[in-house]
Amino acid sequence: MRSVRDLPGYAALSKAGQAGVLRHMERIKCILLGGGIGCIDLLVIGKAIQQFGKDHPCTEQCKNMVKWSALVALGVIAGTVLALCFPECEIAMAAAEGGIADGVVGGVFEELAICATEGILEEAALAAGEAVLEEAAVTAGEAVLDVGHESIFLAAEEQSASHLVYRSVTREGVVQYVGRTSNFAQRAAAHWRERRLIIERIPGLENLTLEEARAVEQALIERHGLARSSGSLLNKINSIAQSNPLFDDAIQRGLEILRSVGYP
What we know:
This protein is mainly alpha-helical. It folds into 2 domains: 4-121, no CATH class; 164-260, no CATH class. It contains 7 helices and 3 strands; from the N terminus they run ααααββαβαα. The protein has a 3-stranded antiparallel β-sheet, sandwiched between helices.
């Protein structure tokens, strides 16, 4: 196989021209390697088609890219072999080879990049959607647990004997307000701040459950009466609504507790 240096036209070139031809020869050898890589690209694109599936919008583009890659690989390999075996053709085909091959290969890889990007974005969107759903599920689960914990807490509070019944009495000894609480100090401060009322614990009506405290409070409301019904109490509403099916039983239970502690 003859070298490019043996060509008659090579000796007539300037030093810069000779150097350019030698560099181009080396580039052609690299392109031969690129042809092999192009074959590998065909396998990669084929794998991409399988990954995307036949209904994916990128599939058709990948099929076109297979055709172009095959043509480019074959063209580059054939041109390189021709140039290596017949170096006389090397100088003549240099410009055409550079422009055409670079343009075709560039277009193929641009299409592949676009298609791959679409696939990546689609995968990212799916992943983000799954993450959002997972986060929503976790949040919903935590909310359910919070509601459950609150329900358990309220149920425990109702059953605990931590409530008491209190009253406010005027200077004349008239009961003007009755109520129940599980935090007497806080309730006393609130009544003074909002109404300038002084409240006191009712002896014997401590350590009650919530149901017992409500029953006693309503029994006291029935005994002293609301101010709107010509009674003495400043209370606005009943502790237990009269429409409640358990109203009568609650009153009886409240009166029993009042009698047991000797409430006048």
